[in-house]
Design brief:
There is one protein chain. The chain is of the alpha/beta class. The chain has two domains: about 230 residues, FAD/NAD(P)-binding domain (3-Layer(bba) Sandwich); about 150 residues, FAD/NAD(P)-binding domain (3-Layer(bba) Sandwich), CATH 3.50.50.60. Helix content is about 35%, strand content about 25%. It has 13 helices and 19 strands. The strands form four sheets. Strands 6-5-14-15-16-13-17 form a seven-stranded mixed sheet. A six-stranded mixed sheet has the order 8-2-1-12-19-18. Strands 3-7-4 form a three-stranded antiparallel sheet. It binds flavin-adenine dinucleotide (FAD). Flavin-adenine dinucleotide binds next to helix 1, strand 3, strand 9 and helix 11.
Length: about 425
């Protein structure tokens, strides 16, 4: 049995929440520090300032949740997913006719699953809340850390009656182990860099993204969920445009969350007319059929209302320092979303980290009198060594898959290869 330690988790996104669950399950005293207020509070601004995003959940992420020691978690998560068995490519033939072409992901019919990131995150927080050894600290922003003295400092935002009355104060927290899961712009990583010789690479690719919605069909109140979808619910829909693309992922209310990915120059071009007059003709030309699914007024409104966000790819190494800190998820390896693996890889980080921590803790128990900090230090070093090559590989695959999704799926050579693979 692993020794009780104080674990603080920075960031209550999907990865930090799952990491907190693993730590709490092994009996550690867990404190979760999150910059924003509680995600489950309707007044909390969601990440990226939009409703939420739909993600592709795959075996990598499911397996990590399966090992979290909470059978109800996986039951609930699977119940809120929609299987996507392949891509559906949308296009227009030379004669002007619209077509759809299904491309299954797997010859055995296995699927990836569409899930709402916010819903998954809330479920993890609900389970954590029911555990006696877990404490939440929302509206706490990590501002400093000393990884030799195992101390961290947080700025606490306290709500006054109005925005102007908001006060901040600083608190000091000590810990045995800090798990940094505070996303792509990680403050934990920033402080970790002062303690270790970290190699670090950050790339903004020339693509921005913006969200749109395809609304569900208007149906009778007792209609089935499946009858609400206006296009196949069991596919990830792609309108490839070679230099840009539009995708749609099903949601469990019959709608689709859609994303335009395009170079910054194209966004600037579409923004150049404030009336939005360039938007519908652009969609008609490059994403045939979309204006029949999203009325042009909604397209224009979403384009103006929703943020236009950049895409970042980050690689770094090592992920830890001594026995006191390790970074996970986007904090360690933010990647572009085209392989659908950012969150999945982050959840897998958690499973692998705790496998290694538990292995070293068991060895520590066998060696009477061994120092738990030294077993943690060995575990964290092994974690970096094992995880870094895989995380870098997934980052590279994600970058390559942008070309596949927006262009290669259209090429005759690609189709021939797929045909031969499946024959
Ligand atoms: P985050 O979700 O970023 O959470 C970090 C948390 O830390 C936040 O709650 C933040 O408020 C908090 N925080 C930040 N700074 C501090 C601080 N100083 N102190 C305290 N707390 C702090 N992944 C997939 O697996 N499949 C997909 O299909 C997929 N599609 C995507 C589509 C798009 C358009 C995008 C942008 C991403 C997609 N991803 C996908 C990636 C996925 O969203 C991320 O990999 C995942 O959210 C990372 O989780 P995380 O918990 O590591 O970080």
């Amino acid at each position: 049995m692993a020794k009780k330690q104080k674990v603080i988790v920075v960031g209550a996104g999907p990865v930090g929440s799952l990491a907190a669950l693993y730590a709490a399950n092994r009996g550690d005293n867990v404190e979760i520090y999150e910059l924003r207020s509680d995600l489950r509070d309707p007044s909390t601004t969601p990440l990226n300032f939009t409703k939420s995003i739909n993600l592709a959940l795959s075996e990598r992420g499911i397996n990590a949740m399966r090992h979290a020691g909470q059978p109800k978690l996986i039951e609930h998560v699977m119940g809120a997913t929609i299987p996507m068995r392949g891509r559906m490519i949308h296009g227009r033939r030379a004669n002007g006719e619209l077509y759809e072409e299904g491309q299954d992901y797997d010859v055995h019919g296995r699927s990836i699953l569409a899930i709402d990131r916010g819903g998954l995150n809330k479920r993890l927080l609900d389970i954590l809340e029911s555990m006696p050894n877990v404490k939440f600290f929302f509206s706490h922003k990590l501002t400093g850390a000393n990884f030799k003295k195992n101390k961290a400092w947080f700025e606490v935002r306290e709500n006054g009656p109005s925005k102007e009355d908001q006060q901040t104060r600083e608190v000091e927290v000590d810990f045995d182990l800090m798990l940094g899961a505070d996303g792509a712009h990680s403050a934990v990583r920033y402080h970790l860099m002062k303690y270790t010789h970290m190699d670090y690479q950050q790339v903004y690719i020339d693509a921005m993204w913006c969200e749109f919605q395809i609304q569900p069909k208007k149906t009778a109140p007792d209609a089935s969920l499946m009858s609400k979808f206006v296009i196949s619910p069991n596919h990830l829909h792609i309108w490839p445009g070679r230099e840009f693309m539009f995708i749609a992922i099903p949601s469990d209310d019959g709608s689709f969350t859609c994303t335009l990915f395009a170079p910054g120059s194209l966004f600037s071009h579409l923004e150049s007319d404030p009336t939005g007059s360039l938007i519908a003709p652009f969609f008609d030309k490059h994403f045939p059929g979309v204006t029949a699914l999203i009325p042009p007024t909604d397209l224009i409104a979403s384009f103006h209302r929703n943020p236009h966000l950049p895409l970042i790819s980050i690689k770094c190494s090592p992920y830890h320092f001594g026995s006191s800190v390790v970074i996970l998820g986007d904090a360690a390896h933010a990647m572009v979303p085209f392989y659908g693996q950012g969150m999945n890889a982050g959840l897998e980080d958690v499973r692998i980290l705790f496998d290694v921590l538990d292995k070293h803790a068991r060895m520590d128990e066998l060696a009477a009198g061994a120092d738990p900090a030294s077993s943690r230090a060995h575990a964290l070093a092994e974690y970096t060594a094992v995880r870094q090559p895989d995380a870098h590989a997934i980052n590279d695959l994600a970058l390559q898959n942008y070309v596949e999704m927006r262009a290669s799926v259209l090429s005759p050579a690609y189709r021939l290869r797929k045909f031969l693979e499946e024959a």
